[in-house]
Amino acid sequence: MINKNISIQINGEPFNCSEPLSLQFLLNYLDFNSERIAIEINSTLLPERLFHSTYINDQDKVEIITIVGGG
Fold first, then answer.
1. The pLDDT of residue 2
2. What's residue 70's pLDDT?
3. Where residue 3 falls among pLDDT bands split at 50, 70, 90?
4. What DSSP element (H or E) covers 41?
5. Residue 34: which domain range?
6. CA 36, CA 40: separation in Å to the nearest integer?
7. Is 71 a domain residue?
8. NCBIfam families, alphabetically?
9. Which residue from 5, 12, 57, 65 could staple onto 38, CB 3.0 to 4.6 Å apart?
10. How is residue 34 annotated by DSSP?
11. Is residue 47 part of a domain?
12. 3-state secondary structure of 54
């Protein structure tokens, strides 16, 4: 079996993994609360309902935007 490393960028920082990851798995791994974020993959805003079924591919650029309430 060939093990292909996947290289992506998360908020402009390099991130490597040894297998494809679902976006939801990545968010859990990075300890993000998926209810308070917006995600762009390659400049496309992704609806929360697709987090479980979307997989990160080699060379993807992921932007995780944290939504902060205030007053």
1. 55
2. 73
3. low
4. strand 37-41
5. 6-66
6. 14
7. no
8. thiS
9. 65
10. G
11. yes
12. coil
